[in-house]
Amino acid sequence: MNDSSPPICIIGAGRMGEGMAVAFSYAGFSVTLIDLKQRLAGDAEIYCHEVRSSLEAELLSLQSLGLLTSNQLKRVNQRIQICSRETAKPHFARAELIFEAVPEVLDIKRSCFAWLSEQCSPDAIIASTTSTFLVTQLAEFVSNPRRFVNAHWLNPAMFMPLVEISRSATTSEHVVQRLSSMLRKIGKVPVVCAPVAGYIVPRLQALVMNEAARMVEEGLATAEEIDTAVNVGFGLRFSVLGLLEFIDWGGGDTLFYGSKYLVEQLSPRFTSPSIIAEHMHSHRNGMRDGQGFYNYDGVNLSQYKKQRLEQYIQRLELMGKMPVFEASSES
Ligand SMILES: NC(=O)C1=CN([C@@H]2O[C@H](COP(=O)(O)OP(=O)(O)OC[C@H]3O[C@@H](n4cnc5c(N)ncnc54)[C@H](O)[C@@H]3O)[C@@H](O)[C@H]2O)C=CC1
Ligand SMILES: O=C(O)[C@@H](O)C(=O)[C@H](O)[C@@H](O)CO
């Protein structure tokens, strides 16, 4: 957190690299942002200047949002060093945490990890920001794969709390714990998942984003109507309740029957997974049965529902969408 703490190194100074650099520096960490691309003489320096200008514009925008004073802006800016691959070596000497954020092209990832394996210490943690590549596949490009893990940030990196960590069987537990603890220090919420394409969020959002696009294609509603339905319905609900938590609220059986009808009317892609039918057969439909995806034994349900409703109210107030008492009497 202070000048003596090892710098965080980030390879790739594009959208995600810059966003992650600002997130760490804002929280007080020193960061080295490294542009790995091979460039003609002189071009590397020009690119680093461009990255600095882009960072400064980002920081000015945070200042205009009231998140930084001008003194704090200077400090955040100074904590970020920008360098090219030619000048990167000394920055790795003390680095214990290195993020990779080069383009989503397998060959570029491969050469980045080969280069990185030569530059940094063998036990420095290496975390890839990849949106799609499996951790097991990328780990093959890294020397000492025990220190390798995927850490998928969401865009915009400065503000989205979630970072999805995907580990392989080889990734050491220490690496997952150390990375999670660093992320928590800067206010992020790490969630660990198995080596799987699409992690949790990209897998979920690919389905709903494709379905939204399909509804436009089918002429069922306009883009504005669908997005309004998401903002004040789907998104609002799931900012309070988890998806599985809501299955327990509404009942797994309701989801099962509803999905069956959608399969008949729309497409087999709405088929429920077998876990929903298994839950029905074992009377685990959710809150009403006392168990579902969660166990409600010993849970004070009215207290729990009240807490969730309070969270809804906070959001409704922010959105200016609170129900108005006796609205009918207003002229
Ligand atoms: N853009 C997004 O919304 C998100 C992206 N990601 C992942 O983050 C990673 C980085 O994505 P972005 O920041 O969007 O990419 P970007 O294109 O904005 O930045 C990539 C950086 O790598 C440099 N670069 C380009 N070609 C190169 C090469 N041949 N060798 C080395 N460096 C090269 C670019 O100059 C730039 O500094 C990808 O793996 C992507 O899947 C993850 C979450 C969200
Ligand atoms: O949710 C996110 O921020 C990311 O998972 C993405 O949206 C993907 O990387 C996307 O930008 C790729 O098209």
List the helices and strands and how they pair.
Layout: E1 8-11, H1 15-26, E2 31-35, H2 43-64, H3 70-78, E3 80-84, H4 89-92, E4 97-100, H5 106-119, E5 125-128, H6 135-139, E6 148-153, E7 162-166, H7 173-185, E8 189-193, H8 201-217, H9 223-240, H10 243-250, H11 252-265, H12 274-281, H13 301-319
Parallel strand pairs: 1-2, 1-4, 2-3, 4-5, 5-6, 7-8
Antiparallel strand pairs: 6-7
Helix pairs in contact: 2-3, 11-12
The structure holds 1,4-dihydronicotinamide adenine dinucleotide (NAI) and the ligand O=C(O)[C@@H](O)C(=O)[C@H](O)[C@@H](O)CO.
1,4-dihydronicotinamide adenine dinucleotide binds at residues 12-17, 35-37, 101-104, 108, 129-131, 152-153, 155.
- Looking at CATH, which topology of the largest domain would you report? Rossmann fold
SS elements, strand count: 8
Structural category is alpha/beta
How much strand content do the residues show? Answer: 5-15%
CATH architecture of the largest domain: 3-Layer(aba) Sandwich
> What integer value in Å does the Rg equal?
24 Å
Count of domain modules = 2
CATH top level of the largest domain is: Alpha Beta
Query: Which distinct ligands sit in these coordinates?
Result: 1,4-dihydronicotinamide adenine dinucleotide, the ligand O=C(O)[C@@H](O)C(=O)[C@H](O)[C@@H](O)CO
Which consecutive residue ranges, at least 5 long each, have pLDDT under 50? none
DSSP helical segment count: 13
Biggest sheet record: 8 strands, mixed
- Our measurement of the CA-to-CA distance between the termini, rounded to an integer number of angstroms, reads 57 Å
Instruction: Please bin the fraction of helical residues.
Output: 40-55%
Strand order of the largest sheet: 3-2-1-4-5-6-7-8
Rounded mean pLDDT is 95
What is the string of helix and strand elements? EHEHHEHEHEHEEHEHHHHHH
- From the spread of the alpha carbons, the general shape counts as globular
The CATH homologous superfamily of the largest domain: NAD(P)-binding Rossmann-like Domain
Domain 3-hydroxyacyl-CoA dehydrogenase C-terminal: 198-296
Subcellular location: Cytoplasm
Family: Belongs to the 3-hydroxyacyl-CoA dehydrogenase family.
GO molecular function: L-gulonate 3-dehydrogenase activity; NAD+ binding
